[in-house]
Amino acid sequence: MALYVRSLTPEEQARLEVLQHSRSEPDTAKRAMIVLLSAKKQRVHEISAEVGLHPINVRKWIHRFNRTGLNGLYPRRSPGRPPLFGDHQRREILDLAMRDPGELGLNFSAWSLQRLRSQLIERQVVPEISAETIRQELLKGGLVFEGRRWIPEVQ
Fold first, then answer.
1. Tens digits of residue pLDDT in 27-71
2. How many CA atoms lie within 13 A of 127 on its CB side?
3. How is residue 127 annotated by DSSP?
4. In the chain, what are the helix, strand and coil shares in percent, each to the nearest 5?
């Protein structure tokens, strides 16, 4: 069974015709073209060849337009991965890394990333964290590993 967009209102038709020529939003222009071609009863595979998208993507944009109208043609921005921890936890990671393990009653004289990881979890600063994440946070916090310690980078 062929898939087509629903009937367009005159306002939608006019807006789509403007959108298909947008140079500032080429992806949205391509989506507007998909809808307009579908409204002219062009089949998905023909539209796919004309706009250079896989038929699955052409179908996606037709379905999205049918469901949400013109707003469905604009990209939805993903908020991204939620932060792993907050500023307070970041400060505690940096503070712990700069402290002497011996002063904390620990039986080693230098931090490794694995030792920092164990202590951060044990002290309930974070529920879980990787050694690589610790390394990245220390570098973002302006610390460098010198000798056997993490110290603030001199600029």
1. 999 999 999 999 999 999 999 999 999 999 999 999 999 999 999
2. 2
3. S
4. 55, 5, 40
Total number of residues shown for the chain: 155
Q: Is the overall model pTM greater than 0.70, yes or no?
A: no
The tokens 């970041």 sit on which residue? 90
Which of 131, 146, 79, 9 minimizes the C-alpha distance to 119?
A: 131
What are the φ/ψ torsions at residue 106 (nearest 5 degrees)? -90, 150
Tell me which residue of 13, 18, 45, 44 sits closest to 29, measured CA to CA: 18
Write the pLDDT tens digit of every residue in 5-14: 999 999 999 9
Number of other CB atoms surrounding residue 12 within 10 Å: 19
At 132, is the secondary structure helix, strand, or coil?
A: helix
SS (H, E, C) 57-106: HHHHHHHHHHHHHHHHHCCCCCCCCCCCCCHHHHHHHHHHHHCCHHHHCC
